[in-house]
Amino acid sequence: MENTSGVGVLDKVTSILGTLEAGPATLAGLVAVTGLARPTAHRLAVALEQHRLVARDVEGRFILGPRLGELSAAAGEDRLLAAAGPVLARLRDVSGESAQLYRRQGGVRICVAAAERLSGLRDTVPVGVTLPMKVGAAAQVLLAWEEPERLHRGLQGARFTATALSGVRRRGWAQSIGERELGVASVSAPVRGPANRVVAAVTVSGPIERLTRHPGALLSQTVVEAADRLTEALRVT
């Protein structure tokens, strides 16, 4: 085994992931390429599957898992945050409302950047605050494009439905009216990483009396344009 670190189990795991980088592999294929004993290759591949670092395709072969994409997206967070400041400030100025950027972390979403409305009645969401994934336009966006099993789990106890998320995927944006907080409406759109996976949600939020009960009709295009600018920032090499 090349490039050994001296930590045996780590070297074996790395050899499995390196093999799958070239494409799907059966257990026999993993054994042939890595040189690992069949029981060892099976045990490690199944353990990696449990942690979503490895998955299975429709033929039952091992493939790289979705967790690797999530880790890759997290590695780009500095670039995302660097671009978020001016994009959110412009979104605030154009919309006249507070703007936020959310990332999902397990069963919650975290506000990682914000630009608050400078005066008057506003929806204030401090950077670093955690909010549930069961309510709000940002939660809808962060859940709508998830793999089916995670999407189904995320809908349990949510204020929105599978039908609503289907509409989010079709339109490319989400809205909520009083879901997270009475009197507050919001509109969100997805930010996508290099692999086109949704990595964050851009949101505008404010009082229903200004955003009305149809906030998407007022602000969806503006929010989508802001999200697209952040997507482009992440795709710059």
From TrEMBL:
Residues 7-66 form the HTH iclR-type domain. Gene3D superfamilies: 3.30.450.40, Winged helix-like DNA-binding domain superfamily/Winged helix DNA-binding domain. Residues 67-236 form the IclR-ED domain. It comes from Kitasatospora purpeofusca. This is IclR family transcriptional regulator. InterPro entries: GAF-like_dom_sf (IPR029016), HTH_MetabolicPath_Reg (IPR050707), Tscrpt_reg_IclR_C (IPR014757), Tscrpt_reg_IclR_N (IPR005471), WH-like_DNA-bd_sf (IPR036388), WH_DNA-bd_sf (IPR036390). SUPFAM superfamilies: GAF domain-like (SSF55781), Winged helix' DNA-binding domain (SSF46785). Pfam families: HTH_IclR (PF09339), IclR_C (PF01614). Keywords: DNA-binding, Transcription, Transcription regulation.
